[in-house]
Specification:
It is a single chain. The protein is of the alpha/beta class. The protein has a single domain, classed as NAD(P)-binding Rossmann-like Domain (Rossmann fold, 3-Layer(aba) Sandwich). It is 42% helix and 18% strand. It has a 7-stranded parallel sheet with strand order 3-2-1-4-5-6-7, with helices on both faces. Helix 3 runs parallel beside helix 4 and helix 4 runs parallel beside helix 5. It starts with 7 loop residues before the first strand and ends in a 7-residue tail after the last strand. The mean pLDDT is 94.
């Protein structure tokens, strides 16, 4: 793995969950980290939770002009990670089309906008975050699988288009993040316990599990076009 000392790293979606853990891991490795998201309040809270100093930038990946202006105004980055997404799931025949469009706009088109505008230094990398539904689709959340599959294909294609810059994707499984806070405490606890019993590793994932996978891809100069599954073996059972 390469040395991240003083590397310029941007984590889009770095105010919570996987993004926050990734930002903290890069900062601990000596990188100059900037976290970006739509909420200034969440960014401020996230920045204070990281042991090392990090910068923060308000950025809405749904705003094409804002994304382009952000990257045009700054210096090139060494590594950029996109984990930002707000999506609603549900069966295709029940999920309102407005919610379906919003989900695609947030997770897929948001990453696409960043990929179009990002400026990377020689030897730099772009890492996207998808999800295990690309490999193990669910009948009650069809769109999530389609979006994650699209992201992974996007990463592979960009690895060719942007070469020799590197583009990769991490595909997490069930991770204990604030995304699950929409469930009642008992329901969330039960879901986590049942998932852990099914997985070969015997537990659900933590944000730092995915952070380590991101740092591996960013630091390995021979990794590009890679979709790295980090899901506790869920696709095996």
């Amino acid at each position: 793995m390469s040395d991240f000392q003083d590397a310029r790293v941007l984590v889009v979606g770095g105010s919570s969950g996987i993004g926050l853990a990734t930002a903290a891991a890069f900062a601990a490795a000596g990188a100059q980290v900037t976290i970006a998201s739509r909420s200034a309040d969440k960014l401020a809270a996230a920045a204070t939770s990281i042991a090392q100093p990090v910068a923060a930038a308000v950025l809405d990946t749904a705003d094409e002009a804002a994304v382009e202006a952000f990257f045009a105004a700054g210096e090139p980055w060494d590594h950029v990670i996109v984990s930002a997404a707000q999506t609603r799931g549900g069966p295709a025949r029940q999920l309102p089309m407005a919610d379906a469009y919003a989900a695609m706009n947030s997770k897929f088109w948001g990453a696409y906008r960043v990929a179009r505008a990002v400026r990377l230094r020689e030897g730099g990398s772009l890492t996207l975050v998808s999800g295990q539904a690309s490999q193990r689709p669910r009948g009650n959340s069809v769109l999530q699988g389609a979006i994650n599959s699209a992201l992974e294909t996007l990463a592979r294609g960009l690895a060719l288009e942007l070469a020799p810059l590197r583009v990769n994707c991490v595909s997490p499984g069930t991770i204990d993040t604030p995304m699950w806070n929409r469930l009642a405490d008992d329901a969330r606890r039960t879901m986590f316990e049942q998932t852990a019993q099914r997985l070969p590793v015997g537990r659900i994932g933590r944000p730092d599990d995915i952070a380590r996978a991101v740092l591996y891809l960013a630091g390995n100069g021979f990794a590009t076009g890679t979709v790295l599954l980090c899901e506790g073996g869920s696709v095996l059972v």
